[in-house]
Amino acid sequence: MLQESAHGKWTVSSSDESAEENSDSEKPCTSSLSDAACGRTSGPQYPCSEARKAAQKRKASPVKFTDKSLSTEEPPAVKQRPSQEGSGWCLSSSDEEPEDQQKHVHKETVKEEECDVPKEHPLNLCKDDKLSENLKKEEYNVTPSEAQDTWDLVTGGNPFRFFLTKVSGIEQNYNSGALHIKDILSPLFGTLISSAQFNYCIDVGWLVRQYPQEFRKKPLLIVHGERRESKAELMAQARPYENISFCQAKLDIAFGTHHTKMMLLLYEEGLRVVIHTSNLIADDWHQKTQGIWLSPLYPRLPQGASGSAGESATNFKSDLISYLAAYNSPALKEWIDLIQEHDLSETRVYLLGSTPGRYQGSDKEKWGHLRLRKLLKEHALSIAAQESWPLVGQFSSIGSMGADGSKWLCSEFQESLVAAGSSVTAFRKCDVPIHLVYPTVNNVRQSLEGYPAGGSLPYSIQTAQKQLWLHSYFHKWSAEVTGRTHAIPHIKTYMRLSPDFQKLAWFLVTSANLSKAAWGALEKNGSQLMIRSYELGVLFLPSAFGLDKGYFHVGREKLPERKDSAIYFPVPYDLPPEQYGSKDQPWIWNIPYTDAPDTHGNMWVPS
Q: Which portions of the sequence form the region Disordered (predicted)?
């Protein structure tokens, strides 16, 4: 079936099934990967998606733009069709892969071949010394002045406590006010007693090395969603570490994932909660745009304090406990008890989570997009001429949206995002402008990582060709304001802005991509909300920051220095977003890009 639009044309086998229909693709892959002839050491052994597996393969064995090998040897699964524009592809049905839904142990045997990268090139993996590419990513040494800067950053001057991760390879001033995982786990932030790490993709050895030496043997609970071979692989990674224990999140609904990214850090001085967007792997903390919400240091309550003590005006404490209780895990019951013992009253954000299940009655409003709808109705002020205030959604993966906008995006999902105050408004069409920010092929090609950055943008051809209507909503990634235009976003953000993009009604940073699996979909004539995955984010509302006008100002200056900084929210990318041009295509991970080289002189051939 030929699909054509302004954003490309593809020929796809009619037997291709969507992720939600293809149960076989859930099964993990257990073949083995080596880094070609280069390092002669095995590649990353952590479970990851097919898209990331392809990215790692291309990093280990890059296809240079001058390489003529493609003319004689076509990849087995993706064959290029003759096309003047180089954008016509024929995919076999064996390429089915749910985007960012199921992971496979990252091991695949590849042909041994010599690297043709110069020795001094950053992509050279043929060195025998210990500075492999991954170890280079771990090189993060803090000078005393930088440590003091980081501490000052966290103790004051950022009332929202919203941060970006540091990016290697950008101007240093754009990393001022940003955090690396080693900063977060630093003794400056507290004397660690124990910690819990909730995440999707986890490299245990790398994670342990991010903790300071003195904290590496402290109890560490890893909360994950792995099963079968992937679970066995995760356990094997942790065998050398006696201090590590696991909690497996139940995923009883097909194609769900444990996508939440959170840290619980118990200190001698108190407790801290970190909700963020990065996987626990080196790549995610190296050259991507990621978001972090870092809680205040929560002090311990006096002994004998009441059960309701230490609650915030945003109900954060009880909401966090409810989220943890949804796992129904004895290991997390211990953390629930610890949270009960601390004072979370200084929290100014609302917690917004998703947990797998089918919810009816009042439970329907506990999770997903109906939870956002409830929070906006209760705590956001109604806006004059609100139908003209656009929505912006920005994400790194896209699920199946259905045949047109009425199926989910412009019906139930939009209705939740446009809720404000107690007014009840039904939007049957996309009356409110919707700007969806998702990287183009050129965004990826010109990024710091080059084409392999697309491994963390797992939008598949099988999904894309069924919803070409969606691409008319797409806008390019651009972040000159934070120096991160070339740091591909893995952050996910949603917000409502005034027509001139100067005022911000609310802002959400979350793990949730644009998918029904993450946000939930109504069933049974609207009486039931079905959610497949675990997700977690925090919602910033003006009322929680003492603003009675109903909006923040958008703080777009590169280094805002204002006494009234509390009312200027640091949106991390450029506004207004720029719509795709006629030649722009959304990044699709499982088709080749051979017409132009990336920043490392390579092409993208995923198979």
A: 1-116
